[in-house]
Amino acid sequence: MAYSETKVVLGGLAHIPIIIGFFYLIRRQYSFGAMLRTGKNALSKKVEAAPSKASAPAKTAAPAKAAAPAKPTAAKKPHADVPVNTYKPKAPFTGTVTENYSALKEGAIGKVQHITFDISGGDPDFKYVEGQSCGILAAGEDAKGKPHRPRLYSIASTRYGDNFAGNTLSLCVRQLQYEKDGETINGVCSTYLCNLSPGDKVKISGPVGKEMLLPDEEDSNIIMLATGTGIAPMRAYLRRMFEPTEIEKHQWNFKGKAWLFMGAPKTANLLYDDDFEHYKSKFPDNLRYTKAISREQKNTKGGRMYIQDRVLEHAEEIFNMIESPKTHIYLCGLKGMEPGIDEAMTTAAAAKGLDWSELRPKLRKAGRWHAETY
Ligand code: FAD
Ligand code: A2P
User: Fold this and answer.
1) 350 Cβ partners below 8 Å, 6+ apart?
2) Residue 287 pairs with which residues in a beta bridge?
3) Which of 227, 295, 301, 308 to mutate to test the pocket of ligand 2 (most atoms within 8 A of CB)?
4) 174 lines ligand 2 (CB under 6 A)
5) Are residues 163 and 260 in the same domain?
6) How confident is the model at residue 78 (pLDDT cuts 50, 70, 90)?
C-alpha cells in the first residue's frame, strides 16, 4: 500500500501523545523513587525536634541545628512540618507513666491530675509540638466487649517535656464525674488516667491537631482564654515562652505580650497558678495574668465571675491588641464558654465600632483565632 506525504506526517503526529505518556511515566517513576529515598516521614526533618533521651541528656544539649524548623517558603503552608497521626488508634504507641499527681490545692472541687508519660523508644519517634493533642485508649472494653474508643487530651507539656529531655508528654486531666439516678457515674477514660501509677503502660495515639499551634514569630502577642483543663495547651505555651531552660533549649525568644485569662471555680482549682505567678514576676512586661474565680468572685450583675466578664472589663485593651496583625487569640476548655466569649467580644467590638460577627471569621481565616473546646 502506497503512503502519501500527508499520511506519513499525520501518522507521525499520532505518536506524539504516546511519546509524551512514555516520558510522563518515566518522570513519575523517578519522583516516587526520590520520595522513598529522601524518606516520607516529616518527623525526621523539619520540626524543631526535641532531642531523644538516648541522644541527649537534659540540661546540656541544645537542639541540633539540623532539627531547627525549616524557614517558611512562600509556597509552604504554615506548620506544614508539624507531625500528625504518627501513631493511629489502631496501632498506638505504648507510653509509660512516670508521674501522676494532683494539680489541685487543698479544698479544691473535683479531681484534676497532672500525668506524665515516657514516650521514648518509638519507631518512629513520638514527636509533638505545643498546642497539639493526643488520643488515649483506656484499658479494658466497653459495654459491647469492644476496646474503648480513644479520647482526646490536650498536651500540657512543650516538645521538650517537663524534664526538658524531649522524651515525655504530660496531660492535665479532670476526672469526669456526674450523678445519674442517684448514682455517681465516673468517666471511662478520665478515671482510668487519673488512677494510673508510675510504671503503668498506656496506649497513646497521635499527636493530632494544628488548630492551637503557636505562631513562629517571636514578637507575636498571645491572648489566652482558658477554663479548667483548657489551661493544658496554655501551660505548654507559657513554658515555651517563659521557662528559662526551655528558652535555652529552643532559642525562640518570645518578645511579644502574652495575656492569660483563666477561669476556675475556686482559688484552690487554679491550675499551675504558682508557675504562672512566677513567670509574671520574672517577665512583668511580657505576661499578664487575669483570673476569674467563679465561686469566689462576682461579676457586675452579681452572678458568678466567668472569663467573659473579665474580657469585658478589659475590652478596650484586648481590642487594641487585636488591631495588631501580630495578635493571636487562643480559646480552650468548656464548650459552654464559647457563646459567652462571643457575646463579650460582640459588646467589646461594638464599643470600638466593630462588628464581631464579621471580625471573628476574618481573624480565623488569618489564622489568628484558635479555639478548641469540649
Ligand atoms: P465518658 O465515659 O466518655 O463519658 C462522657 C459521656 O458522659 C458524655 O459523652 C455524656 O454522654 C455523658 N455525660 C457527661 N457529663 C454528663 C452529665 N453531667 N450528665 C449526664 N451525662 C453526662 N479533658 C481533660 O480532662 N483534659 C484535657 O486536656 C482535654 N483535652 C481535650 C481536647 C480535645 C480536643 C477534646 C475533644 C477533648 C478534650 N478533653 C480533655 C475531654 C476528654 O476527651 C474526654 O471527653 C473527657 O475526659 C471525658 O471522657 P471519659 O471517657 O472520662 O468520659
Ligand atoms: P462554675 O463551675 O462555677 O459555674 P473546672 O473545669 O475546674 O470546673 O473550671 C471550669 C470553670 O469554668 C469554672 O469556674 C466554671 O464555673 C466556669 N464556667 C462554667 N460554665 C461556663 C461558661 N458558660 N462560660 C465560662 N465559664 C464557665
Assistant:
1) 356
2) 258
3) 227
4) yes
5) no
6) confident
Cα distance between residue 128 and residue 87, in whole Å: 11
Average pLDDT, the chain: 86
Sign of torsion over alpha carbons 43, 45, 50, 56: positive
Please indicate whether residue 153 is annotated as part of the active site: yes
Residue 45 lies in a domain: no
**Are 230 and 347 within one domain?**
yes
- As a whole number of angstroms, the distance between CA 184 and CA 199 comes to 29
- Asked if 147 and 224 touch (Cβ cutoff 8 Å), the reply is no
**Residue 215 carries which DSSP code?**
P
Q: How confident is the model at residue 63 (pLDDT cuts 50, 70, 90)?
A: very low
Q: Helix, strand or coil for residue 328?
A: strand
Q: How confident is the model at residue 76 (pLDDT cuts 50, 70, 90)?
A: confident
CB 258 within 8 A of CB 287: yes
Which of 87, 128, 153, 160 is labelled catalytic?
A: 153
Is 233 a domain residue? yes
Phi, then psi, of 268 in degrees rounded to 5:
-65, -15
- From 228, 258, 229, select the one nearest 243 (Cα to Cα): 258
116: closest CA among 173, 46, 170? 170
Q: Of 75-79, 213-217, 263-267, 301-305, give the lowest mean pLDDT range.
A: 75-79
Task: Give the CA distances from residue 202 to residues 98, 115, 196, in Å, rounded to whole numbers and listed in that order.
Answer: 11, 11, 9
